[in-house]
Structures are given as C-alpha cells and as structure tokens.
Write a structure and sequence with these properties.
The chain is of the alpha+beta class. It has a domain at 19-97: Winged helix-like DNA-binding domain superfamily/Winged helix DNA-binding domain (Arc Repressor Mutant, subunit A), CATH 1.10.10.10. Helices cover 58% and strands 12% of the residues. It has seven helices and three strands, in the order αααβααββαα. The protein has helices at 2-11, 18-31, 34-46, 55-58, 62-74, 93-106, 121-124; strands at residues 48-50, 78-83, 86-91. Strands 1-3-2 form a three-stranded antiparallel sheet. A hairpin with a 2-residue loop joins strand 2 and strand 3 (86-91). It is elongated, with a radius of gyration of 19 Å.
C-alpha cells in the first residue's frame, strides 16, 4: 500500500514550484499577525490609507504601525507612496493576484473535504 501511494505521489504534478512556494510562505508569514491582518483589511477596504490614519483603528503607535507595514510591504502585499512627511499605503494588485492563484493551486479541492466526513486525508483516497 505504501508503495502505491508513493508511486501516485511521484507521478503527481506539484501545484507550486519552489519559487512560488517561497513567495507564498513569505505572504503567509506576513499575514500571521492580527495587527497586520487588521492593517491589510483597512488598506483593502479604503484603497489608499495614510500611515497617520492607522493609529486610531489599530490602537497601535506609529513606530508599531511602521514595523507592521514594513513587513506587509516586504511580502509585497502593500506598496508605499511618500506624500510629504507621510507614507500612503495601497494594495499591491500583482501580489494579491499571485496569492489568489497560488492558494487556488495549493488547495484546488478544499471544497470537497466536507464531502468526505472528517476531512481526514485517509478518507479522501
């Protein structure tokens, strides 16, 4: 049985290449913080947001916001535009599109898990 499973996996085309998996893991790491998720939701809902307008809704100081926006920007999720002394943030559509496509390749059959009882992989095979 183990040999059959191994043979099947060896023949399966991987959904993500190494570069895509690396980029996706960087995105997931950036999203793995509630403050960053909150900031991303605010930017996404508003289109463009000044850093100065993130303090009140997040309840965080400007240095903390700067740290979190830097992580989001390094992951490519948001991009900065300097206007005077403030930085304005917007979503990076290229990375967001990559994220949706990569997540779809990573979990193409996730919607079927509920059809198999507990979602245990043994029940799917």
């Amino acid at each position: 049985m183990d040999i059959e499973i191994h043979d099947h996996l060896a023949q399966t085309q991987y959904a993500l290449d190494e570069a895509a998996a690396g980029k996706l893991s960087q995105i997931f790491a950036a999203l793995a913080d509630p403050v960053r998720l909150h900031i991303l939701a605010i930017v996404s809902a508003n289109g463009t947001v000044c850093s100065c307008n993130l303090e009140k809704p997040t309840g965080k100081s400007q240095p903390t916001i700067s740290h979190h926006t830097k992580v989001l920007a390094e992951a490519g999720l948001i991009k900065a535009e300097k206007r005077g002394r403030w930085v304005w943030w917007s979503m990076d559509s290229e990375t967001v599109n990559f994220f949706y496509q990569a997540a779809g390749r990573l979990l193409p059959h996730a919607h079927r898990l509920s059809d198999h009882g507990s979602g245990n992989p043994e029940n799917i095979c």
